[in-house]
């Protein structure tokens, strides 16, 4: 393994408990045996600290988890990756620029009086966290459980921890799954992963009011189309007669 063979070295942080760095290697390795990751603060005269990597989810990925005592906006780490005692990668990382927040938690959904579904969730950070109370936006997605490829995604660009899913936008008689992810706008590098899904059942049936709401605009369009057609036919007839 040489410097050019350590691929896609990248770091991200939840900005609360850990800074995770991972990289790909061209062949299978025992990451804890072959690699060591040294790190130190850029501005503090402290000795290097050591992070021993583990094999990641993929057989060709190594992952190292650094757990700092604190996070502050100006914190930058100098990283040095070694393979069998030789430096193969050097870089610096500023945690504030690579924030990947934790996904929202405790999703709940309930049917409300108007027949729609109110989806709610909680922030995954405590008041002691740097991200707690910071501006955040969300995306909600939901899909029929039996048809996961048919996904609806809605953006929520305001401070809210709930979203109303309109029953008329769903197909009655099906089970649905909803999930949420977030992005802190002052730390916009990454969206969180999608949260654990919450399931609900839609028993919505089309009502007479729904039919009327659809019929009125359709009728107006048809009337306009017929009127325009009659007008052109009449003008052509007048031209022909004259």
From TrEMBL:
It is found in: Membrane. GO terms for cellular component: external side of plasma membrane. Residues 103-210 form the Fibronectin type-III domain. It is a single-pass type I membrane protein. Its main location: membrane. GO terms for molecular function: cytokine receptor activity. One of its GO terms (biological process) is production of molecular mediator involved in inflammatory response. The chain crosses the membrane at residues 214-234. Belongs to the type I cytokine receptor family. Type 4 subfamily. This is Interleukin-4 receptor subunit alpha. It comes from Rhynochetos jubatus.
């Amino acid at each position: 393994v040489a410097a050019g063979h350590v691929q896609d070295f990248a770091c991200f942080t939840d900005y609360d408990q850990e800074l995770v760095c991972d990289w790909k290697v061209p062949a299978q390795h025992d990451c804890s045996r072959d690699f060591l990751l040294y790190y130190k603060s850029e501005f503090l005269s402290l000795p290097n600290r050591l992070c021993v990597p583990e094999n990641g989810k993929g057989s060709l990925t190594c992952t190292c988890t650094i757990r700092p005592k604190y996070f502050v906006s100006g914190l930058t780490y100098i990283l040095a990756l070694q393979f069998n005692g030789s430096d193969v990668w050097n870089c610096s990382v500023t945690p504030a620029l690579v924030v990947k927040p934790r996904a929202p938690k405790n999703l709940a959904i309930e049917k409300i009086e108007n027949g729609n579904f109110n989806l709610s969730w909680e922030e995954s950070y405590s008041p002691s966290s740097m991200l707690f109370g910071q501006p955040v936006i969300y995306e909600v997605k939901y899909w029929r459980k039996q048809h996961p490829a048919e996904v609806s995604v809605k953006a929520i660009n305001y401070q809210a921890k709930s979203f109303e899913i309109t029953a008329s936008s769903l197909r009655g008689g099906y089970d649905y799954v909803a999930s949420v992810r977030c992005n802190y706008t002052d730390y916009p590098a990454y969206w969180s992963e999608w949260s654990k899904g919450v399931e609900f059942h839609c028993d919505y049936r089309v009502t007479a009011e729904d039919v009327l709401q659809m019929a009125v605009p359709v009728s107006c369009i048809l009337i306009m189309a017929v009127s325009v057609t009659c007008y052109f036919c009449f003008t052509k007839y007048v031209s022909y007669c004259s």
